[in-house]
Design a protein that fits this description.
Two copies of one chain form a homodimer. Chain A has 154 residues and is of the alpha+beta class. Chain A has a single domain, classed as Arc Repressor Mutant, subunit A, CATH 1.10.10.10. Helix content of chain A is 42%, strand content 20%. Chain A is built from seven helices and six strands; from the N terminus they run ααααββααββββα. In chain A, the strands form two sheets. Chain A has a two-stranded antiparallel sheet with strand order 1-2. Chain A has a two-stranded antiparallel sheet with strand order 4-5. The model of chain A has no long low-confidence stretch (mean pLDDT 90). At the A-B interface, helix 1, helix 2, helix 3, helix 6 and strand 3 of A face helix 1, helix 2, helix 3, helix 6 and strand 3 of B.
Chain lengths: 154, 154
Amino acid sequence: MDYADQPTDCCSIARTVSITGDRWMMLILRDLSNGLRRFDELIGHLRIARDVLTRRLAALVDEGMVERRPYQQLGQRPRDEYRLTAKGRDFVPVLIALMHWGDQHLAGAAGPPVRLRHADCGAEIRLELRCAAGHELTPGRAVEREFNAAALDG
Amino acid sequence: MDYADQPTDCCSIARTVSITGDRWMMLILRDLSNGLRRFDELIGHLRIARDVLTRRLAALVDEGMVERRPYQQLGQRPRDEYRLTAKGRDFVPVLIALMHWGDQHLAGAAGPPVRLRHADCGAEIRLELRCAAGHELTPGRAVEREFNAAALDG
């Protein structure tokens, strides 16, 4: 099957960006993956409008990427905090891929703002494209698409 | 430095999504990386409004991710086709990461629509998070952030 004949919406990229393909969604997921959990922490860091954050968090909860957990500070009313679910944590490689592209192409003279290191050994972390037989690949080179006719018809 | 004190914009993820953080940008980059090159091919596949595609392509050209190359078909006026530059091809890991998340979480009963295989050996392709010492990591586990004070100040 030719790529141009494959429906644009029956595609895992299109499906994913229909949920997360919005600058705020990416930044909220980034902040949650970095350990911010409370509505006011997110507001303070992202400088996002409250109603925009409310709507995006509700969408992430509906999607099962984020869960609400109640907490209560002494003398205050109960509030919710927000944590990534396993489904939300599975999104972290997308964030790391975005980060690497920015590190490569948008860093200033001082270099990337943050580096990720393996906590156990201190070596820098990167995303690698590999096949199951262990060969490392360059994206777009030597990659073959196999269409799943059953999924494309469905 | 604490994550909450790091400015939200001095971040390679924020910088990258300020350029590409839009559903159409991702889908245009997807289609170009799959070999579609001509304006009308993109219109036909994406079902995007002409003015929206024109603006997004111009932004990708300005950003150096896409280049225009003239072509002419017999008896027709000269037109441009659009190809990813090296900077644009470097974005492919983001698309593959989005695809993998969709494959994991949004595929129907028939499975993912497309699988990527290594053309040389046929084995399936996946993104792996590894440190330079070769340890494979699970995102969010054993990852340490090292802040670059010079880049954060700048």
